[in-house]
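Good day; I would like, with your permission, to put a structural problem before you. What I wish to show you is a protein chain and, alongside it, a tokenised description of its three-dimensional fold. Thank you for your consideration; the sequence and its tokens are set out here:
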Amino acid sequence: QQQLVESGGGLVQPGGSLRLSCAASGFTFGYYAIGWFRQAPGKEREGVSCISSTGSDTDYASSVKGRFTISRDNAKSTVYLQMNSLKPEDTGVYYCAASLDYYCSGYRVPRYDDMDYWGKGTLVTVSS
């Protein structure tokens, strides 16, 4: 059974940092691009970042570029999202998702319909 499990969320002050992890199981992780999404209260889920299956290509939404860094360790079937200089508008539930067909090429961040498998999310709250 395909599974993605996010961890690392929590409450952080503006300007702080968090590192999210996404642990995968039940599928051939190294074949899949991974995306991070977030959903703020009352808003649609949006793509934040992606990384190609080998880790050679990444992309970021303009709102997080320069502050967030995505990486992956295929030996551990895990993807990370390092989030620095956090802002209150970064608050939301963060989801990771996997796609066999979507290619993270830097052209655009992934959309909901691009992805095959989803985690259940981890809550990030940025507040003083």
The mean pLDDT is 96. The two ends are 40 Å apart (CA to CA).
